[in-house]
């Protein structure tokens, strides 16, 4: 149980284009999902907290107009990188907590490798 | 906000030796402390966690200790094996507030046979 998927697993796009990454909880409902970014040989840095039916909460230094987050259902959150640039190339990982109870474990998706050329 | 410091950044041990990784956290309200193992290009995998009402937890060769007063927690791996080689991350969060996990910078563990 508690499986999180991400799509796509890898994406290559040209500078200036937008890319959408999907994060799905497959066997549970997730009121809250989190988006992390991981550069090579670095840690997971929290970008934003995504709440179903409301606006995401972004961490300091993360441009909300560049990284659009939508959490339209209890099983799906999307991250859209708008006008991507080479410095946005990174590993993007989502995670989710199970709704409806005091839950402390976060279940991670497999990540999306974004390369901007 | 929460800040998690992790040491050392790299650790090399011989097979069979023990390895210890230490973390400190800044927010005294944090009460959940998991440890993750991450292999290159893959998602972090939870290997052990501890809540603040417990001082120590053990699972076979892996143990975690927590000192709430000092705000630090440690991962102990005994009888290390080459397959333990990976990057290990500590993290912290506040259960009741539903906050996201904040991660330390990671430790690259290399176990040589």
Topology of this structure?
The complex is a heterodimer of chains A (117) and B (113).
Chain A: E1 4-7, E2 10-13, E3 19-25, E4 32-38, E5 45-51, E6 57-58, E7 67-73, E8 76-81, E9 90-96, E10 107-108, E11 112-116
Parallel strand pairs in A: 2-11
Antiparallel strand pairs in A: 1-3, 3-8, 4-5, 4-9, 5-6, 7-8, 9-10, 9-11
Chain B: E1 4-7, E2 10-14, E3 19-25, E4 32-38, E5 45-51, E6 56-59, E7 62-67, E8 72-77, E9 86-92, E10 102-103, E11 107-112
Parallel strand pairs in B: 2-11
Antiparallel strand pairs in B: 1-3, 3-8, 4-5, 4-9, 6-7, 7-8, 9-10, 9-11
Kindly describe this structure:
The complex is a heterodimer of chains A (117) and B (113). Chain A has 117 residues and is mostly beta strands. Helix content of chain A is 0%, strand content 50%. In chain A, the strands form two sheets. In chain A, strands 2, 4, 5, 6, 9, 10 and 11 form a seven-stranded mixed β-sheet that branches. A four-stranded antiparallel β-sheet of chain A has the order 1-3-8-7, with no helix packed on it. The radius of gyration of chain A is 13 Å and the shape is globular. The termini of chain A are far apart. The model of chain A has no long low-confidence stretch (mean pLDDT 93). By secondary structure, chain B is an all-beta fold. In chain B, a hairpin with a 6-residue loop joins strand 4 (32-38) and strand 5. The termini of chain B are far apart. The mean pLDDT of chain B is 96. Chains A and B meet through strand 5 and strand 9 of A and strand 5 and strand 10 of B.
């Amino acid at each position: 149980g508690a499986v999180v998927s991400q799509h796509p697993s890898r994406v290559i796009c040209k500078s200036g284009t937008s890319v959408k990454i999907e994060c799905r909880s497959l066997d549970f409902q997730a009121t809250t999902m989190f988006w992390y970014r991981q550069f090579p040989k670095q840690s997971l840095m929290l970008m934003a907290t995504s709440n179903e039916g409301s606006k995401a909460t972004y961490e300091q230094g993360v441009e909300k107009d560049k990284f659009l987050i939508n959490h339209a259902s209890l099983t799906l959150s999307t991250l859209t990188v708008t006008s991507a640039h080479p410095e946005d190339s990174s590993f993007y990982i989502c995670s989710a907590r199970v709704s409806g109870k005091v839950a402390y474990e976060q279940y991670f998706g497999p990540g999306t490798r974004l390369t901007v050329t | 906000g929460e800040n998690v410091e992790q040491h050392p950044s790299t650790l090399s041990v011989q097979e069979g030796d023990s390895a210890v990784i230490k973390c400190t956290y800044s927010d005294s309200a944090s009460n959940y402390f998991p440890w993750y193992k991450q292999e290159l290009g893959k998602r972090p995998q939870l290997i052990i966690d501890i809540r603040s009402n417990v001082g120590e937890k053990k699972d076979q060769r892996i143990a975690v200790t927590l000192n709430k007063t000092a705000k630090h927690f440690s991962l102990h791996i005994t009888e290390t094996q080459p397959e333990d080689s990976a990057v290990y991350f500590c993290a912290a969060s506040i259960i009741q507030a539903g906050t996201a996990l904040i991660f330390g910078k990671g430790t690259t563990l290399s176990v040589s046979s």
